[in-house]
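Q: Could you write out the predicted structure for this multi-component system? I'm mainly interested in how the pieces pack against one another.
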Amino acid sequence: MSDDEQQLPCVNLKALNSSYTIDVKMLPCKTSSISPDKVYKTTELDQLYPEPKETTDGKEVLYLRGRKLIGESIVLENQTAYLCNKSGSNETINVELKVDFLGNFEREGNTSRLTNEKENLLEYVELTNNIMS
Amino acid sequence: MDHLPDTVNKLLSSSHTETYVSHIPAAINEENISTTPVIVGVDEAGRGPIFGSMVYSAAYMPETFENCLNTGDAEDLKFGFDDSKKLTDVKRDELFGYLWRQTTDENLSEEKQQSIEKLKENIGYVITGISARDISSGMSKYPPTEIYNLNEQAHDTTMEMIRILKEDNKLNIKHVFIDTVGPPASYQKKLEMKFPDLKFTVSKKADSIYPIVSVASVIAKVTRDMHLKELNKIFLREDINLGSGYPSDPNTVKYLKENVTSLIGWNPVFTRFSWNTTNNYLTENNEKYGTLEIKWEDDFITTGRKRKNGGDIVSAMKPSMYDGVLTASSFYDIN
């Protein structure tokens, strides 16, 4: 392999924990990096949801630091999503957990963007599939 | 929970804004409801603190009963209703107790018991508790043009209470007296446009000037304080003291400092995240307080007054400057 040839990262499927699945909810905010122990050990996630749970026009509602977030599920037909993590100098992609639920959230007042983002994602998946097939 | 007024039980029924409407008092019964002119007083409690609901109350009574409250006239029943801030906790509880308790203390003199019955027969009320959760979410909408600010929430709540009394209860409202913290003239005009057939007096310190506003003031204050006390019992250990909810109160500062959690911050049922006080813990000193730094789109646009003006923010956006939080298509939506 020549020096200027880019080395593709490899995918490690052995890291997959098949005992668990994960719900992924994409929120319209950015956080500093969170160490895995903080992610897995937090007991605060339940407090994002009001009691009893709420919906708006059939969409799931959660509250984070006073902001009302409204979300909808994204169904990827004939696709399976996985949560991955990168490691090592060659940035090996470790496939860690199978995604059971994928949802996209927006702030109250901005939910029209949900449709746009959903279309963009589905278009991206379709395009990727066409390239790969 | 018969040890609590129905106003408080209603607020405890959810973490959202709730309204309680009392029965129409006996002096304004069904037969004479359209012929009995009533006056209405409106006041609020809990506009400034970081904890608990902001409670609005509209109290009403027949116009003919006006002389019986705090006028010094011969008819004055001498209950001592006044601006709730001028009264002690005990006095406020006592006064509202006369209205909501089913039974009257038999140890009181017969004359006092009769006065209390007369008070009950003449005063009705409606309260709305705008919950901490709803205050926060209304003020945190995005984009900034969608923000439902505290004044708008207060005005809409007041107008809805008046509508309930006028249309649902079908009261013959003669005059509405309202205590305001903002400019009275523009607020009065807004009310007169909404209810052109009603007479309004919007004034600062109305809770000291007009007895019916004093009644509303006491109902709002007692309801808010009792509600927050119950929330404290439900969600926190007994030895934890929330304090007054103002940043100058050492108990409030102690609570905020010792109970902040990494992701949520504090319990959203009684905490207003739209208050700047929370920024110290959740956005400015994350490392110090062990909280997770969370950046929202607003934080990448601009801050302060410009945020509320909506229009300016669009031109201030430079997506290429920021890393990851927004996609280009996100900006196109706003544009």
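A: Regarding packing and overall arrangement: The beta strands of chain B are 18-21, 37-45, 54-62, 124-130, 172-179, 200-203, 294-296.
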